[in-house]
């Protein structure tokens, strides 16, 4: 299995934001530098296994959550990730997302 570190960084940012934590707060919980967390989230640094475990512990998630998403068994793992992102959107943002999806489906069917 090849790790996509950009996905890991995006998941880290999503979990952190979902817990309403700043990079600074997460850094305090993990004893890491906040700029290092930023670098991981933006795919500029590759975290060690020890660092991943610290981050998972601080965010109360499993390494699987961070490394492979919600489930490597589920075919709908991306659907779950999208749902988690959309549920935190405002009603206006949800309408925009719905409109974009409708446009994609219309163009796909042409």
Description of the molecule:
The protein has 110 residues and is mainly α. It folds into two domains: 1-69, 434 Repressor (Amino-terminal Domain), CATH 1.10.260; 70-110. The chain is 68% helix and 0% strand. It contains seven helices and no strands. The longest helix has 18 residues, at 91-108. The model is unreliable at 71-75 (pLDDT under 50).
Secondary structure blueprint with pairings:
Layout: H1 5-18, H2 23-30, H3 34-41, H4 49-59, H5 63-68, H6 77-86, H7 91-108
Compact summary:
This protein has 110 residues and is an all-alpha fold. Helices cover 68% and strands 0% of the residues.
Number of strands: 0
- Within the CATH hierarchy, at the fold level, what is the topology of the largest domain? 434 Repressor (Amino-terminal Domain)
- Output the CATH homologous superfamily of the largest domain: lambda repressor-like DNA-binding domains
Number of domains: 2
Q: pLDDT average, as an integer?
A: 86
Residue runs with pLDDT of under 50 for 5 or more positions: 71-75
Shape: elongated
Beta fraction: under 5%
What's the Cα radius of gyration?
16 Å
CATH C-level name of the largest domain: Mainly Alpha
What is the percent of helical residues? Answer: 55-70%
| Largest sheet report | none
Q: What is the overall number of helices?
A: 7
């Amino acid at each position: 299995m090849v790790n996509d570190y950009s996905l890991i960084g995006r998941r880290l940012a999503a979990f952190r934001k979902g817990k309403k934590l700043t990079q600074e707060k997460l850094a305090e919980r993990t004893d890491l530098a906040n700029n290092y967390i930023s670098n991981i989230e933006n795919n500029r640094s590759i975290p060690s296994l020890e660092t991943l475990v610290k981050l998972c512990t601080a965010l109360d998630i499993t390494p699987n959550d961070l490394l492979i998403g919600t489930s490597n068994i589920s075919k709908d793992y991306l659907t779950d990730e999208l749902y988690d992102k959309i549920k935190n959107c405002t009603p206006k943002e949800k309408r925009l997302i719905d409109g974009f999806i409708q446009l994609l489906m219309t163009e796909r069917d042409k």
